[in-house]
Amino acid sequence: MSTKLYVVRGSHPCVTVERALQLKGHPYEVTEWLPPTHAVAQRLLFGGRTVPGIRFDDGEKVQGSVAILERLEQRHPEPPLVPADPALAERVRAAERWGNDVLQPIPRRVLWWSLSRSPSAIPSYQAGSKLAMPPLLTAFVAPTILPIQRRLNRVGDESVRADLRDLPAHLERIDGWLADGTLGGSREQVADLQIAPSLRLLMTIEDLRGPFLERPAGQWAQRLFPEWSGQVPAGTIPAAWLEPLGA
Ligand SMILES: N[C@@H](CCC(=O)N[C@@H](CS)C(=O)NCC(=O)O)C(=O)O
């Protein structure tokens, strides 16, 4: 049996786990779900509805990017994804938890809001997917899928405006971690793998890409993940909402 990673195309925590498997040199196969069918399939396989989930080659199953990286580290310690120095390891773990709890939901909310405004951008996020639908079919199903995703992710004007207001402080924090070596070391660690994909996914929204690229955080995410499918056209987010970012 080979290790199987269960993903939804475009999901940033799935990218986190896939990069970790690649860094460890652990062979794996990818099984892709088409949302919203993932919810039923993942619940049956793992007990919870979200991706990523992994079934290791010996049958052990783990769900959730932080739990998967932790288990991967125990099963395959080399190369390490957590620093040997205990004080730095504690900082890296704390940054990873913040990345999972605070930062990770933001691209979900902002992106589903943006795709609801610019649904013609949806096919760009399916590039490279085995399950990519023809654009006409996507246009047909989008009015059904978008409200479900908005509800699942508690997306509304107010939550997205609050996310955009909070982003400068989050970017400041990440810039600080890059400056003090918690992030952006010579080898990628669990916090890099958790935080950079969230930034990179946000940078597929053209209105955010410019302001992000002006900061160390955005430049770092772009360096770690130069290729990323998807593009929401400029002008999707109202200009007034972007003011906190200096855009
Ligand atoms: N913090 C968890 C969250 C996973 C999560 O919410 N994944 C999203 C995709 S990015 C998902 O499965 N959403 C669909 C749903 O909530 O049903 C992790 O890192 O694994």
How much helicity do the residues have?
55-70%
Strand elements, count: 4
What is the correct CATH architecture of the largest domain?
Up-down Bundle
How much of the residues is beta strand, in percent? 5-15%
User: Which fold name is given in CATH as the topology of the largest domain?
Assistant: Glutathione S-transferase Yfyf (Class Pi), Chain A, domain 2
Structural class: alpha+beta
**What is the 3D shape?**
globular
Largest sheet, order of strands side by side? Answer: 2-1-3-4
Number of discrete domains? 2
Q: Report the sheet with the most strands, covering strand number, pairing sense and barrel closure.
A: 4 strands, mixed
Count of helix runs: 11
Sequence stretches where pLDDT stays below 50 over 5 or more residues? none
> N-to-C terminal Cα separation, in Å?
50 Å
Instruction: Report the CATH C-level class of the largest domain.
Output: Mainly Alpha
Order of helices and strands: EHEHEEHHHHHHHHH
